[in-house]
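Thread: Newbie trying to understand structure tokens

Hi all, I'm a second-year student working on a class project, and my supervisor (Dr. K.) asked me to get a predicted structure for one chain before our next meeting. I've only ever worked with sequences, so writing a 3D structure as a token string is new to me. If someone could post the tokens and maybe explain what I'm looking at, I'd be very grateful. Here's the chain:
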Amino acid sequence: MKNIRRTMAAICIPLGTSLLLAGCATMAPKYSQPAAPVPAAWPASKAAQAVDSQPPQKAVADIPWQDFFVDKQLSKVIELALKNNRDLRVATLNIEHFRALYQIRSADQLPKVEVSAGAGFQRTPADFSATGQAMTSHQYNVGAGLVSYELDMFGRVQSLKDQALEQYLATEQAQRSVQISLVSQVSSTWLALAADRERLQLAKDTLASQQESYRLTKSRFDAGVSTALALNQARSTVDAARVDIARYTTLVAQDENALNFVVGSQVSAELLPHALSETLTAMKEIAPGLPSDVLLHRPDILQAEGQLKGLNANIGAAQAAFFPRITLVSSVGFGSSELSGLFTGDAFAWSILPRISLPIFDGGSNKANLKVAEVDRDIAVAQYEKAIQTAFREVADGLAQKETIDEQVAAQQSLMDATSESYKLSQARFDKGVDSYLTVLDSQRSLYGAQQNLISVRLTRLANLVTLYKALGGGQK
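---
Reply by user tm_fold:
Sure, no problem. This is what the structure looks like when written as tokens:
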């Protein structure tokens, strides 16, 4: 027995411990965080260069969504979604699931003790009895003992526990990632509804104006002042506006359905936006920060790294399968043929059943399992690096759009103002008989198109802010 203990200790000490029952350090490879396969700075742009010229600011990931989305209606809708969205609910339940799995793996490191009690009764026929007479025997026992406790000498159980821990932590990051996506999706859908409602109202206002123009043109035609061509052109603009009203009515209904779906419940009418022009200050401006901030705070990257750590720990369990496994089964208690004598006299009993198993021939399954574990780890490395590259691209694309979006809004606003003035002048010239009504119709179409495009560009600017906030890891709190 002493020689066996010396041998086990000699095996275990180089692996990191001298305690036999506590087990050795795991045989998993030492984890090293892969280098980020992206540049150390964002692509050159005005938005990115502004980071260097400004004093250090709070990381976007540390800005709660309540502070970023300042519109009260939108904030209430987001809060409602965080309570009712089913995807977020599933992600939260997954945390509980993997927490329980981790607790199971942790329990495997501790001895399992069971208390048992039993009784047995047996009648032996006379032909089988040594005395030639039938006999009836009774057995009573009570005891406690270990149930197949594994001495984790090579860290197999510890490796499985480490893997379960990393899976649990990765699931927490997955839940945070779902919340970020949910906040972004709710705000984007809410803003799209605001834009389509404003487009619908613009189409209705345009229809009313064009119907009035058609009425005047028809009266002029009836009086012989206007031509049939001008009358049909006026009528075509009325029909075009009616088509837009029907189309935007459908889009508004679909936007409301989409918002109710992502929120997980019916959104009350008082929380719905009326027009995009009323929500232009619904969000705060943000600074992009540095790539290292994104890598530090984005939960999807932390999730990918957690999965990588878990698969790295799984290699330790696969390697430990090549070495002996020692399990103990023991019991201690009392036994007697009489119930009254169960705890008296020499009724004390004990047993210990150590078992050691060493793989000799397994057809290469252990080697194949180790190879699978190593390949899974390499796949996780590639997925982790891809997550970093995806995050970098999302932010870089957002910054590229942010660099010119304000100029687009300003240019579109100027264009709308110019077309509005042109429409007024063309209407005045038509009233004085200088120009034909065709000029007025062209000015009307140009103004209507400029107004619709202004709504689209404003929506793009607000959506860009939402995208950047999500890409930089915002929306977690």
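A couple of things are worth pointing out once you decode it. The chain has one domain: 18-116+137-471. The CA atoms of residues 26 and 378 lie 19 Å apart. Feel free to ask follow-ups in this thread.
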